[in-house]
């Protein structure tokens, strides 16, 4: 059995290098229930209109059957990064610290040649891992004129935070190494989904959006 599993692991690893590696964009939005995404066609579709997110659903994939094991901010972020429940990754409440021995998918992507970037809200005490470059705000961050810390030092930007985060992400997309696949993590604060700029999608190759 162990030999069979070992062979399967080698086979899967070989396949990963033989197929084209998709670009990955993660847009993480606080407090945005699926009822408030018009692509789902709920009772709020006429009021909470999200054309940019709807475009992602049309050109990509929409999840219709899903559960959320831990919806509070920091623990949910840690679970997505590690693929582990909160009692395994160590983040049980706000501003938690991810266990050092917990895996994090940006590290694994970087190991296989991805260029990686993170901008926006982090809300964890542990530092980001696996990102070539990251710029994050403290705690919840501010709605206007955010201050960033990270691999680029500490600096401030003027403007509404969601616009600022998105502009930084767009600039990075323009300047990235076009020879490498990429992971872009854009993490916006509470009540920030609607202003997400539609032109942001124009910088992402169609193949990436549909992958």
Q: How much strand?
A: 5-15%
Mean pLDDT level: 82
* H and E string: HEHHHHEEEEHEH
**Taking Cα atoms only, what radius of gyration do you get, to the nearest Å?**
18 Å
Tell me what you see in this structure:
The protein is globular and about 45 Å long. Residues 1-12, 192-199 and 206-211 have low confidence and may be disordered. β4 (147-150) and β5 (155-156) form a beta hairpin. The protein has helices at residues 2-18, 51-59, 73-82, 86-89, 105-111, 161-175, 206-210; strands at residues 24-29, 115-121, 133-137, 147-150, 155-156, 182-188. Helix content is 32%, strand content 15%. A 6-stranded mixed β-sheet has the order 1-6-2-3-4-5, sandwiched between helices. The protein has one domain (22-210): Alkaline Phosphatase, subunit A (3-Layer(aba) Sandwich), CATH 3.40.720.10. It has 211 residues and is an alpha/beta fold.
Write a concise keyword list for the protein shown above:
211 residues; alpha/beta; Alkaline Phosphatase, subunit A; 6-stranded mixed beta sheet; 7 helices; 15% strand; globular; disordered C terminus
Secondary-structure map:
Layout: H1 2-18, E1 24-29, H2 51-59, H3 73-82, H4 86-89, H5 105-111, E2 115-121, E3 133-137, E4 147-150, E5 155-156, H6 161-175, E6 182-188, H7 206-210
Parallel strand pairs: 1-6, 2-3, 2-6
Antiparallel strand pairs: 3-4, 4-5
């Amino acid at each position: 059995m162990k030999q069979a599993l070992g062979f399967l692991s080698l086979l899967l690893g070989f396949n990963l290098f033989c197929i084209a590696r998709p670009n990955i964009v993660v847009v993480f939005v606080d407090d945005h229930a699926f009822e408030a995404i018009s692509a789902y066609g709920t009772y709020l579709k006429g009021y909470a209109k999200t054309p940019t997110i709807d475009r992602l659903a049309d050109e990509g994939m929409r999840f219709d059957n899903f559960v959320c094991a831990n919806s509070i901010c920091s623990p949910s972020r840690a679970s997505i990064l590690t693929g582990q429940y909160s009692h395994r990754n160590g983040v049980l409440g706000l501003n938690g610290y991810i266990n050092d021995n917990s895996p994090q998918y940006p590290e694994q992507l970087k190991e296989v040649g991805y260029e990686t970037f993170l901008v926006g809200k982090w809300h964890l005490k542990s530092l980001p891992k696996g990102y070539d470059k990251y710029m994050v705000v403290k705690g919840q961050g501010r709605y206007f004129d955010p201050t960033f810390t990270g691999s680029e030092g500490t600096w401030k930007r003027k403007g509404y935070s969601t616009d600022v985060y998105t502009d930084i992400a767009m600039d990075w997309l323009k300047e990235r190494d076009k020879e490498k696949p990429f992971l872009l993590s854009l993490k916006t604060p509470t009540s920030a989904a609607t202003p997400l700029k539609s032109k942001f999608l124009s910088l992402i190759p169609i193949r990436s959006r549909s992958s």
